Amino acid sequence: MRSPEKRQAILRAAVREIAETGLGASTARIARGAGLAEGTMFRYFSSKDDLLNELYIELKTDAYRRICADFPKDSGLRERARHIWTAHLRWALEKPDERKVSVLLHLSNVVSAATRERIGTERKMVGQTMEELGKCGAFKDLPQGFASSAMAAMQEAVMEMASKKPRQKVMLVELAFDAFWRMVK
C-alpha cells in the first residue's frame, strides 16, 4: 500500500532539490530529502522521468486551481485577464520554488505531450481567455500564443522587481497589468 503522505513528501523534496540544483537533481538526494531510501521512491514513481511528469502535473494543477477559483467567467475580457494576471502572480510570489520548478519543467522535453494534455481541463478557462487576448490589439497579427508569452514575460518582470522592491509589490502588479492591457486594446 502506497502512502499519499510519502508521495507528497517526495514531490515536496523534488521541488526543493530542483529549485536548488535544476532538473539534474539526483533521485538519491530527492529521496533523502523526503526521508526515504531511493528504492522506496521508485515504488511511487517508476523512473525520474515519471517523477518529473507527475511533478509537472501537480504544480500546474495547483496553479490553475488557484487561477480558476472564483474565475469571473461571465465578465468581460479585461476582468478575466486581470484575474488570470493577479491570481497567477499571487501563486508565483507565494510559492517561488514551485514557480521556478514549474518553469523549468515547462521548458523541458522530459515532460511528455500526454502529460501536457492531462492539464488541459484545468487550463480551459485560462486558455480561452488567452486565445481571445491573442486576437486583440498588438497581438492580433502575431502568432497564436504570443499574448500568453507576453503576459508571462511581463509577470516575470513583476516578480523580479517585487523581489527588489517588496514594499511596492501591490503597486507593481497593478501598474504592470495596466501596461499589459494597453497592448491588448
Polypeptide structure, described:
The chain has two domains: 1-45, Homeodomain-like (Arc Repressor Mutant, subunit A, Orthogonal Bundle), CATH 1.10.10.60; 47-184, Orthogonal Bundle (Tetracycline Repressor, domain 2). It is 75% helix and 0% strand. The protein contains ten helices and no strands. The longest helix has 21 residues, at 48-68. It is elongated.
Overall mean pLDDT? 96
E-strand count: 0
In DSSP terms (H or I, runs of 4 or more residues), the helix count works out at 10
The top level CATH class name of the largest domain: Mainly Alpha
How many domains in all?
2
Quaternary organisation: single chain
Q: Report the uncertain regions.
A: none
SSE order, one letter for each helix or strand: HHHHHHHHHH
Query: What gyration radius follows from the Cα positions, in whole Å?
Result: 18 Å
Instruction: Look up the CATH topology of the largest domain.
Output: Tetracycline Repressor, domain 2
Helix content: over 70%
Distance between the termini: 55 Å
Label the structural class: mainly alpha
Which architecture of the largest domain per CATH?
Answer: Orthogonal Bundle
Strand residues, percent: under 5%
Biggest pleated sheet: none
CATH superfamily grouping of the largest domain: Tetracycline Repressor, domain 2
3D shape: elongated
